[in-house]
């Protein structure tokens, strides 16, 4: 599958792992309007590639991402209008979660992670961070409201930890180790130079599993966050039953018994894994 050439993002595939790389290193990968629109394309392309089983999202240079490009917002006003419109319409099309990506998503945080970058920390299935990564939310320091990203983080972190980061703004940074202790990230990679290697290794482990079963698992577990316990369990049971009769359900036990790697069925069309 040929990937499109994008201005501010890079798309690559390494074996079964697709890579989405923020590529505005001269601006600390801050998201301008063009990058925001490119994200929607990037997620769709990687989710539709039948050779990709897992997606890793990371950044080029010394920052993962530093949120919205404040310089653009402070300029002719067009950037702020575009951003306001997307929020009013709740069109957060630059995140994997809002795009409904079926494949497992790993966010690999390198360097600075600030403000709007927390969208991808909150919405990822798994988060890795380099040991020198730093986290902070500068919204209130530039007169903006902390909302959607931090609300997403409340699923992972204690309320007070999220609130402290929101209220200290750019005046306090959280270390990767502290982010791990609070549950924001699941693994700290040291030395930092091993981050991409570690993400690739993890992606390859995940890619060995049934694509259909993983997609159903994502629907069940993410869906549980939107509902009460009983409703979530009922919905999860439907996802479980949806695999009955699927060839992967027979292939998995057979491969285990025969002590070989399973041969999973291919994804059922674009957007499924």
Automatic annotation (TrEMBL):
GO MF annotation terms: catalytic activity
Chain spans, region Disordered: 245-273
SUPFAM superfamilies, per the entry: ClpP/crotonase (SSF52096)
Gene3D superfamilies linked: 2-enoyl-CoA Hydratase, Chain A, domain 1, Lyase 2-enoyl-coa Hydratase, Chain A, domain 2
InterPro entries reported in the protein's UniProt record: ClpP/crotonase-like_dom_sf, Enoyl-CoA_hydra/iso, Enoyl-CoA_hydra_C, Enoyl-CoA_Hydratase/Isomerase
Chain intervals with Basic and acidic residues compositional bias: 247-263
CDD domains hit by this protein: crotonase-like
Family: Belongs to the enoyl-CoA hydratase/isomerase family.
Name this protein carries in UniProt: Enoyl-CoA hydratase/isomerase family protein
Organism encoding this protein: Yinghuangia soli
């Amino acid at each position: 599958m040929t990937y499109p050439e994008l201005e501010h993002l890079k798309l690559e595939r390494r074996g079964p792992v697709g890579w989405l790389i923020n590529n505005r290193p001269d601006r600390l990968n801050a998201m301008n309007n063009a990058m925001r629109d490119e994200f929607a394309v990037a997620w769709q392309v990687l989710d539709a590639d039948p050779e990709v089983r897992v997606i890793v999202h990371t950044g080029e240079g010394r920052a993962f991402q530093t949120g919205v490009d404040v310089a653009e917002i402070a300029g002719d006003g067009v950037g702020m209008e575009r951003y306001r419109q997307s929020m009013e319409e709740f069109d957060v099309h630059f995140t994997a979660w809002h795009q409904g990506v079926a494949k497992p998503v790993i966010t690999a945080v390198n360097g600075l992670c600030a403000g709007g970058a927390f969208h991808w920390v909150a919405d990822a299935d798994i988060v890795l961070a380099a040991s020198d990564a730093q986290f902070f939310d500068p919204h209130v320091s530039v007169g903006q409201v902390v909302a959607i990203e931090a609300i997403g983080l409340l699923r992972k972190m204690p309320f007070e930890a999220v609130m402290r980061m929101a209220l200290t703004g750019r005046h306090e940074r959280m270390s990767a180790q502290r982010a791990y202790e609070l549950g924001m990230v699941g693994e700290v990679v040291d030395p930092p130079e091993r981050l991409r290697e570690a993400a690739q290794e993890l992606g390859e482990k995940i890619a060995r599993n049934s694509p259909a079963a993983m997609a159903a698992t994502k629907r069940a577990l993410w869906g549980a966050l939107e509902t009460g316990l009983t409703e979530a369990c009922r919905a999860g049971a439907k996802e479980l039953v949806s695999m009955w009769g699927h060839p992967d359900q027979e292939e998995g036990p057979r491969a285990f018994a025969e002590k070989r790697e399973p041969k999973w069925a291919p994804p059922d069309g674009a957007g499924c894994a």
